[in-house]
Amino acid sequence: MARLTRWARELLVLALIVLVASFAMDWLRAPQAPPAFNNQMLETLDGEPVSLAQLSASEPLLVYFWASWCGVCRFTTPSVARLAANGGNVLTVALRSGDDRQVEQFLAHKQLQLPVVNDRRGELSAQWQVGVTPTFVVISQGRVVQSTTGWTSYWGMKLRLWWAAV
């Protein structure tokens, strides 16, 4: 019994260390919203003009910065597409992934349907100071309320959007 208690305590300490390290990494890597970002008009691959303020006015918006060359994005992008297909308020930004045709071909090859703003030269991502892909930013009513980087599950994204709406 003493051995089991010791193992449980060690596991709890390890979980706390991982949790603190995770929050610290998110804080250090957090993107910085550019001034007046919510007034900026963006254009999706299908030519639709969008505004982050408009998209986040009635429900929280998940902005997903990703790249076709990003290894971790191969695991997260299908979850983002699933979230979008299930009615989640999602806008994605393809960072330095080629011209519009190349991004469309990538999405078609992976059988993904997403609203995508193509950040061909990385200018939009630079304005947000995105240094890591993937990066997830939750915007509610024109304000950044959460962000995280790296792998995130479908349920993690859903929970973040739900939490931002509460």
List keywords for this structure.
single chain; 166 residues; alpha/beta; Glutaredoxin; 2 domains; 5-stranded mixed β-sheet; two-stranded antiparallel sheet; Redoxin; Protein disulfide oxidoreductase
The whole-number mean of residue pLDDT values reads: 91
Q: Which structural class matches the secondary elements? A: alpha/beta
- Adjacency order of strands in the biggest sheet: 5-4-3-6-7
* CATH level-four homologous superfamily name of the largest domain: Glutaredoxin
Q: Report, as a whole number of angstroms, the end-to-end distance.
A: 42 Å
Domain module count = 2
Element-level helix/strand string: HEEHEHEHEHEEH
The CATH C-level class name of the largest domain: Alpha Beta
Report on this model:
InterPro entries: Redoxin, Thioredoxin-like_sf, Thioredoxin_domain, Thioredoxin_ResA/DsbE_sf. It comes from Serratia oryzae. Pfam families: Redoxin. The protein is 43% helix and 21% strand. With 166 residues, it is an alpha/beta fold. It has 2 domains: 30 residues; 135 residues, 3-Layer(aba) Sandwich (Glutaredoxin). The chain has a 5-stranded mixed sheet with strand order 5-4-3-6-7. Strands 1-2 form a two-stranded antiparallel ribbon. A hairpin with a 5-residue loop joins strand 1 and strand 2. The longest helix has 28 residues. The N and C termini lie far apart (42 Å).
